[in-house]
């Protein structure tokens, strides 16, 4: 138990990083209504590019920028597969993911240390890191809030909600899908670059299952925070970062109870399954239970009246 | 304003399901024409509208809007010239977006979407006025999500969106068919008002013969992918439902088979 609280700040930092990635997933999954599997690949590409450029002595802001651009390129590829070549959405993402697997191996091999330590992104200086991440998240949310309020951003939202209406209003929905994928994967790769700095390493395996984690954060945010995030987009995005933190807290807690590295992936899949099932089961059984209770109370009331 | 010349379209060509939906449609609309289109199921009414809108490419023939050949343009590029309202009230609006956001998107039909803010405060004022004309109370719910509106309200909003930026042609595809009679009458009234006010050229597909007679200045009847009857002006005003049924039997050589059209 103590161990859990000792690493709590570090767990939160990791959670925020997953939360940033989840914002990227949210843009495709919810706003664009596109299940984008590119994520598992683009997060690693972001890590690889950032690690390579840092090790080559490039300034860190440039490394992060280039990592983001590499993710955008990955999103562009998925978008072109889907719109230009007519490949179904899920398959387009999987194809890019496979391409990126090879690209990542070619770029940086299967594992790479980030030689330099950056105080703003480091487990040993967790206070600075948390402050940096908080500021970073607020900035990112501000930019996205602005963008999705513009004509272009509104068109992306309309495309995701109702492609027929969008076409009838003169929106080029293929372009909007590509743009959404580019932005989404840019954010994912950006989070990847921060992961590389925080962990001090890149691993080609790191992104496996990332999409599931991202979805988990989005769904946890839906399940727990939809009551405050309903009307405001910025609050919604922040709630997703909290979704990421909660996911990672649960993950750490479970990991400490069942310590077996071989079970890692299974455990994270089960956590996601539970959070995915939660809203459905609540609707199905919880509401039914309440309806029963309500009708019983009504009946009792009636009988009470009759008796009187 | 709109010229359809010998338009052909076959769906699923070369299969057992092949359907020659448009068999040489010729139609010429003058500016300000309000044409109602009737005909049995599968006559090609909606297909004609969709051919104009560019939902699918036509096999042969030409489609000109105000002199511009649009037959090869994709749907979103033709949208510049067209206002559209669909049969399903869900199709014309974005449910997860606000009423004013939907209007703002419609106001930019045919424009480049830029990084300017999606809606200005002057626009909001203008939308409030326009919405109040509908008399549905929507002007006080401008930031409500469209998904919360009823079918009739959504259809009225779609109409407003379709005419917000003056279209060359307004396409109404059975836009009252999914509504209850009272709401349908209200939406038709709004359609008439918007068309008259903006002096629009319009095409309205309907299954209701009475509506087809009562609205517009011209009526065409379609059967098996062709225009079989075209009447306008004084002659149209004198039409009755019985006339139309008789015309249908004469022109097509068969009984008017659609119960829906007879009963309504």
Structure overview:
The complex is a heterodimer of chains A (308) and B (264). Chain A is an all-alpha fold and 308 residues long. Chain A has a domain at 2-213. Chain A has helices spanning 2-6, 8-31, 39-55, 60-83, 89-108, 126-147, 151-161, 163-168, 173-199, 210-229, 233-257, 264-307, and strands spanning 111-113, 201-203. Chain A has a two-stranded antiparallel sheet with strand order 1-2. Chain B has 264 residues and is of the alpha/beta class. Chain B has one domain (2-263): Rossmann fold, CATH 3.40.50.300. Chain B is 36% helix and 23% strand. Chain B is built from ten helices and ten strands. Chain B has helices spanning 45-53, 75-78, 99-107, 121-134, 151-164, 181-198, 209-214, 233-237, 241-252, 259-263, and strands at residues 2-11, 19-29, 34-39, 60-65, 68-69, 82-85, 169-173, 201-205, 218-223, 226-232. The longest helix of chain B is centred in the C-terminal third of the chain and has 18 residues, at 181-198. The A-B interface holds A 147, 149-155, 157-158, 161-162, 164-173 and B 53, 75-77, 79-80, 82, 84, 86, 90-97, 101, 104-106, 108-111, 113-118, 161.
Task: Write the topology of this structure.
The complex is a heterodimer of chains A (308) and B (264).
Chain A: H1 2-6, H2 8-31, H3 39-55, H4 60-83, H5 89-108, E1 111-113, H6 126-147, H7 151-161, H8 163-168, H9 173-199, E2 201-203, H10 210-229, H11 233-257, H12 264-307
Antiparallel strand pairs in A: 1-2
Helix pairs in contact in A: 2-6, 2-9, 2-10, 2-11, 3-4, 3-5, 3-9, 4-5, 4-9, 6-11, 7-9, 10-11, 10-12, 11-12
Chain B: E1 2-11, E2 19-29, E3 34-39, H1 45-53, E4 60-65, E5 68-69, H2 75-78, E6 82-85, H3 99-107, H4 121-134, H5 151-164, E7 169-173, H6 181-198, E8 201-205, H7 209-214, E9 218-223, E10 226-232, H8 233-237, H9 241-252, H10 259-263
Parallel strand pairs in B: 3-8, 3-9, 6-7, 7-8
Antiparallel strand pairs in B: 1-2, 1-4, 4-5, 9-10
Helix pairs in contact in B: 3-5, 5-6
